[in-house]
């Protein structure tokens, strides 16, 4: 008796570096979401699940918890730098991007506190200060010319003050509180969203 021939199952083609880059980006996005919902002590397995990859893939990209947190912080800082460097950048727009990150990421709030406290455990305080310095330079570049509302250093102090107000169970509540704090400081904030340019 002959068996009916079964269609040959094809495995998807290995996409190599392209898949690796997509997985890394998905892991960073998932980590940001999981950290916002569960805090920095969330299990790494939750990040892998949210990204739709296995834990092995997570560990190929990030050897430990600190590496994941550092990657999220690095991406946050890069977005703020890109927002500040955009041709049509405005101070209010850069503050909008920064506020989005404050509302999304507890780790980012820790980074921007005035004392430089950090979740960047791989390199400790030096890493936190370097990242915070990059944010300060980006914000400083976006300050309006002419009579400035404040120096970049003073704006970073205001950021640290606003970050202290960013509390609440939901992202919307954290955003609302951040915007209220900016208003109390007399600073206009543009649309609160990630930088997509």
Give the SSE layout.
Elements: H1 16-38, H2 44-51, H3 55-61, H4 65-85, H5 91-104, H6 106-112, H7 124-142, H8 152-165, H9 171-184
Helix pairs in contact: 1-2, 1-4, 4-5, 4-7, 5-9, 7-8, 8-9
Note the main attributes of this structure.
mainly alpha, 197 residues, 9 helices
Task: Give a verbal description of the structure.
With 197 residues, the chain is mainly α. Helices cover 64% and strands 0% of the residues. It has helices at residues 16-38, 44-51, 55-61, 65-85, 91-104, 106-112, 124-142, 152-165, 171-184. The longest helix is centred in the N-terminal third of the chain and has 23 residues, at 16-38. The protein is globular.
Rounded average pLDDT: 80
CA-atom Rg in angstroms: 20 Å
The count of strands amounts to 0
Share of β-strand residues = under 5%
Write down the overall geometry: globular
List the secondary-structure elements in sequence, H or E: HHHHHHHHH
Oligomerization status of the protein chains: single chain
Tally of helical runs: 9
User: Pairing-aware structural class of the strands and helices?
Assistant: mainly alpha
* Unreliable parts: 10-14, 114-119
Q: Which range best describes the helical content: under 10%, 10-25%, 25-40%, 40-55%, 55-70% or over 70%?
A: 55-70%
Gap between N and C termini, in Å?
63 Å
Task: Give a short account of the largest sheet.
Answer: none
């Amino acid at each position: 008796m002959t068996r009916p021939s079964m269609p040959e199952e094809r495995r998807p083609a290995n996409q190599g570096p392209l898949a690796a880059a997509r997985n890394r980006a998905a892991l960073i996005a998932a980590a940001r979401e999981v950290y916002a919902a569960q805090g920095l002590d969330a299990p790494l397995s939750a990040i892998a699940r949210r990204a739709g990859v296995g834990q092995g893939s997570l560990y190929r990209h990030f050897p430990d918890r600190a590496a994941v947190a550092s990657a999220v912080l690095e991406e946050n800082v890069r977005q703020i730098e890109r927002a500040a460097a955009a041709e049509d950048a405005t101070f209010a727009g850069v503050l909008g991007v920064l506020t989005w990150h404050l509302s999304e990421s507890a780790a980012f709030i820790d980074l921007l506190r005035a004392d430089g406290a950090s979740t960047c455990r791989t390199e400790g305080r030096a890493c936190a200060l370097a990242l915070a310095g990059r944010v300060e330079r980006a914000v400083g570049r976006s300050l309006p010319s002419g009579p400035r509302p404040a120096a970049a250093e003073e704006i970073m102090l205001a950021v640290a003050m606003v970050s202290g107000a960013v509390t609440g169970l939901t992202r919307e509540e954290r955003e609302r509180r951040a915007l209220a704090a900016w208003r109390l400081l007399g600073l206009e904030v543009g649309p609160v969203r990630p930088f997509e340019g």
